[in-house]
Design goal:
heterodimer; A: mainly alpha; B: 703 residues; mainly beta; seven-stranded mixed β-sheet; 44% strand; globular
Chain lengths: 162, 703
């Protein structure tokens, strides 16, 4: 890969890694699995770029969709085997819990999975409504309305946070 | 905290929590060709349109594993009925073990309503006359003398999907009075004299409640029929700490939310009288009214991380003024376990005419988000991620999202879970499902990816129409439709189905579904733009409301919506469908709430007109780029005539002006006689819908 390409790739990684991770986390519900998925998705992108000589159009959507499907694959295979206990997966969190993050999570917990997906795509991924519509198989107007509903739902919860 | 700050903090938090182990590409010693940005993933639209020419008939196929990775259907969700609460223990214990200690996605409830909470207060509320003095046009109007007869010509009702199955809405009317849901109240207006709209009464749902325990009522929706107003509302349990009421919403939010219905006798709208109430725990999904019964669906997500080994603590609670006075967990034999989800979907049935008949409640442990109801059965749909499909292990990986379906039949207040099934893909909205002659037709978009031999990944998008029998077993299906496009709207009309898909142009497909085992595409019409809502004008004519769209370039992959488009389609001969007439309104950015909320359409068949709210955007000068938005112009409620199904023309554009000459966003319009009543968050106004002349208005202004 050229120096230029490598920089492009790093920029894409930096821009989308959070939304890719959170997409995987939402579907797999496991930090370990989400990290695996995230890595595999970016590796996949790299392979794809080298093979095709270009970055896919709408690479953000490409990454998120792949993350979603890879996560589903993981969940499917998980359900057949006995999941191993991983005490570290839980312990690691406690330290990161500030009162603030607990409150933010709490507000977001009121969203359904579908709403959370749209919210994360918008806020963490920076996607436009049209791009979100492509990712979630909907149309832009519905996405726009759903996002407005989400904002309506969250705003009163924030009123009491300072 | 303001919303922007919340988003920023969330972003920062998410960034901090995302592991950072960059996948860094190796920089080669010798330079390889540079990446170039060329249009990629070009689904050959021209080639596709050749594939789907008019007259192709696809024979029914069951989905089979194919090498392109289409997921196998199968994996019907099983439902087991509980004998005791302990039957739930296994699911929750397993879920708790899997839950990360602070997993943000594991649901919201920490505890259920306790079973000793009294819910209702003095519910013989007879309308407190003093409420009427909180503003209003003038006090004298509240005791109206004999008024002239109501306008003749009828009125427009809520635009529902299925005749005979009423849907709740934020505004309801009987042609004489208009009921408006407003935060924690319903405000009742007398519109019998259009030139003098007057507030008649106010219903405060909080007055129903035992205010020492529950409060913060908010009205979500309403039904109105036969002088009975049924209000769908939510109430929050008050949180007391050390004997004091704790008002920090965040920290008290973990207490239960009860969604319920309260029925009022409004034979005298100036004096509504409470008849009964019923609540069930969770967030509101949807509701329907069929005959004397209202059915409501709520959803409760349980956070398994705090499960304490006592299933009764997580089961949704209900409260029925005809049965118990306190919130009580749903009985075990009314609980069904569908899968490993920790979300309950609860269905309640209430007789609104007989206050003494106990309500029926059924709850399913299995997620669901959308509801379709025929007059005979209610179907609840849930998107599944962790399904147990018996798919073959292929050499290529594939994954797909499925929609689980749970069917309930209703017989008065008796609810029976009767069947479960699933289809590949996701539904756009409730119109994607329809029951006909006992069978359920579902239109879905499904996506997946395949990993090719050279290890590159390719996404696919396809659409399907599936027909399930009364046990939700598959009878027939059409798959592989409109590849590369998503469904934008669906409308079933008896034995015919219409589906609009879109990527850069809009194929409108017609299906002949008269033989459920052998569904057939009978026609396709390709036109620019797309419809997001389709209305059956008559068996030969469809009305479509959506957006006009322009492709980026001739063979581009992306099209940009360009403003509102209303169209009439001749569907007499599905082989030869055509667009009879179109009406374009506004520039890019122009929308109507009908595009995502079918209830925003006011359809007034007797006068051959309809009305929709419009948010209008216009270009001052020329549009330079196809993705440029116009400037905001105004909000309005636009009335169109349908010219007997031949021609659409605008009759009037009704606006509600504010003091600065701006316009309020209109939520609903209702036709009554010769007039239209428009309702925004700020005002309710009556205009002659033909001339546009304003007749009267009431401003809410903090009332």
């Amino acid at each position: 890969m050229t120096e230029y390409a490598s920089r492009q790739f790093s920029a894409i990684y930096e821009k989308y890694r959070v939304v890719v991770y959170y997409t995987a986390l939402r579907v797999t519900r496991s930090k370990e699995a989400a990290e695996d998925v995230m890595q595999s998705v970016f590796l996949e992108l790299m392979d794809n770029c080298e093979k095709n000589g270009r970055i896919p159009d709408e690479v953000g959507g490409w990454l998120v969709k792949l993350a979603k499907f890879r996560s589903l694959d993981h969940v499917k295979s998980e359900s057949r085997s006995v999941p191993a206990e991983d005490p570290d997966a839980r312990a690691g969190d406690a330290a990161a819990d500030t009162e603030r993050s607990v409150m933010i999570r709490g507000a977001l917990d009121t969203l359904s999975d579908e709403e959370r997906e749209i919210f994360d795509l918008k806020v963490l991924g920076g996607f436009k409504h049209r791009e979100i519509a492509q990712i979630v198989s909907s149309n832009p107007s519905t996405v726009r309305w759903q996002y407005a509903q989400i904002v309506k739902k969250l705003k009163p919860l924030l009123a009491d946070l300072n | 905290m303001n919303f922007n700050r919340f988003k920023n903090e969330y972003r920062a938090m998410a960034k901090a929590e995302t592991p950072d182990t960059p996948v860094v590409p190796q920089v080669a010693e010798t330079a390889k060709p540079r990446f170039t940005q060329r249009p990629a993933f070009r689904f050959a639209m021209a080639a596709l349109s050749l594939l789907l020419v008019v007259g192709i008939s696809l024979t029914a196929v069951y989905v089979v594993p194919k090498s392109n990775g289409v997921a196998v259907s199968g994996g019907k969700p099983e439902l087991t009925r509980c004998a005791t609460y302990d039957d739930l223990d296994a699911v929750f214990t397993r879920a708790k073990d899997r839950a990360d200690s602070r997993n943000i996605f594991d649901g919201m409830y920490y505890k259920s309503a306790t079973s000793t909470d009294t819910f209702g207060g003095d519910f013989n509320y007879a309308g407190n006359p003093e409420d009427l003095n909180l503003g209003g046009v003038d006090d004298g109007a509240f005791a109206p003398a004999a008024l002239p007869e109501a306008n003749d010509g009828g009125y427009s009702k809520t635009n529902v999907q299925v005749d005979g199955v009423d849907e709740a809405d934020i505004v309801k009317t009987d042609g004489k009075f208009v009921y408006v849901a407003k935060e924690g109240r319903v405000v009742v207006f007398d519109v019998r004299t259009p030139s003098e709209i007057a507030k008649s009464s106010t219903i405060r749902v909080d007055d129903l409640l035992d205010n020492s325990v529950y409060g913060y009522a908010r009205v979500a929706d309403m039904f109105l029929e036969d002088d009975l107003l049924t209000v769908v509302f939510t109430a929050e349990k008050k949180d007391y700490r050390n004997g004091k009421l704790f008002t920090d919403y965040y920290f008290s939010m973990r207490a239960d939310s009860q969604y319920g219905i309260a029925v009022y006798d409004v034979s005298d709208p100036a004096k509504p009288e409470s008849v009964r109430y019923y609540t069930q725990e969770g967030y509101y999904v949807s509701s329907r009214r069929i005959g004397d019964y209202v059915y409501m669906v709520t959803r409760k997500s349980v956070y398994a991380g705090n499960y304490d080994g006592n299933p009764k603590d997580v089961v949704p609670c209900r409260c029925d003024s005809a049965a118990e006075e306190t919130t009580t967990p749903v009985a075990p034999d009314c609980i069904y376990i569908a899968d490993n989800s920790t979300t309950f979907i609860t269905l309640g049935a209430v007789n609104v005419k007989d206050a003494g008949e106990p309500a029926g409640t059924v709850t399913v442990l299995g997620d669901g988000g959308a509801v379709y109801s025929s007059a005979k059965a209610m179907y609840i749909f849930g998107t599944r991620y962790d399904y147990k499909a018996d798919d073959a292990e292929g050499a290529v990986s594939n994954a797909a999202i499925t929609t689980n379906i749970y069917k309930f039949t209703m017989s008065g207040s008796e609810l029976a879970f009767t069947a479960s099934g699933s289809v590949n893909g996701t539904m756009i909205n409730q119109f994607a499902a329809d029951e006909y002659e006992g069978n359920l037709r579902v239109a879905t978009t499904y996506e997946g990816y395949t990993t090719k031999e050279d290890k590159t990944v390719e996404f696919y998008t396809e659409n399907a129409v599936t027909i399930l029998d009364e046990n939700l077993e598959k009878l027939g299906e059409l798959t592989g439709l409109a590849k590369g496009e998503h469904i934008y709207s669906v409308r079933f009309n008896g034995a015919t189905g219409y589906v609009v898909t879109f990527r850069t142009v809009d194929p409108l497909f017609a299906f002949d579904l008269s033989d459920p085992k052998n569904p057939v595409v009978t026609g396709e019409l390709k036109i620019p733009g797309y419809s997001e809502y389709m209305h059956v004008y008559d068996d030969n004519t469809l009305l479509g409301i959506g957006q006009d769209a322009t492709a980026e370039s001739e063979d581009a992959d992306i099209a940009y919506y360009q403003g509102l488009k209303i169209a009439l389609f001749d569907v007499t001969d599905p082989d030869n469908m055509s667009e009879i007439d179109t009406f374009y309104l506004g520039d890019r950015g122009t929308t109507s709430a009908v595009e995502w909320d079918h209830k925003a359409l006011a359809y007034y068949a007797t006068r051959d007109v309809f009305g929709i709210p419009v948010e209008l955007f216009r270009f001052e000068g020329e549009q330079e780029n196809i993705y440029d938005y116009g400037e905001f112009d105004s909000n309005s409620f636009c009335v169109f005539s349908m010219g007997g199904g031949k021609k659409i023309s605008m009759v009037s554009m009704i606006k509600q002006f504010n003091e600065d000459g701006g316009t309020f966003n209109i939520n609903r319009g209702i036709f009554i006689g010769d007039n239209v009543v428009t309702i925004s968050d700020q005002a309710i106004q009556i205009n002659d819908f033909t001339t546009g002349e304003q007749l009267s208005r009431f401003d809410f202004v903090d009332r």
